[in-house]
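Model it.
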Amino acid sequence: MPQTTIFKKGTGTKDKILKASFLLFTEYGYKATSVRKIASSVGIRESAIYNHYKSKEEIFLLIAKDIFSSPFSFKEEEIKELALRGKPFLHKYVMQYKLLTFDKNNESMFRLLLIELLQNKELREQFMTDFHDKNIKILSEGFFIMMQNSLIRYADPMTISYEFLSTLFYLRLQVTLLRFDSLSTNSLATQFEKHVDFFWESIKLDII
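Modeled.
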């Protein structure tokens, strides 16, 4: 399972603050997590937090940015290489999305973000740029390359991207809701792969 880069960083005080904050936010929520509680978890004075971060909100937004951007690490050359093969591009994207969805740390933070998105304008803006816009761009580039190489039917790449991503986001929401009620998510385990198969069959260009 992938982990956010929060857990891959160094062991300096700044990184320890992020790691501790992440765990506290997911366990107690944003409002119930105080700077004092973060400092206590790290083992430093409360005033020492402000040597590294301006506020609790800055810490939260940094963690959210990491959650939004991880683990979609497609580079330009990788997008092109996979898109030229067609379906493998969709499959790799979905597998990354699936791993993110079923990772417990990410799922806990995703649940918290759903709550905070309605209350924090800066977080909403960050969600749109770091998650929505970025992923639509990755998908649009891939679909456009497929169209140029006669692998799929011509259409608006952005519209196709919206259609493809919306189902994945809904599946992720389903997983979050089921886990919130301590219900099994086994029925959703293969839905990601099925989505790739169904979507590819609906857009591919059959060459006679």
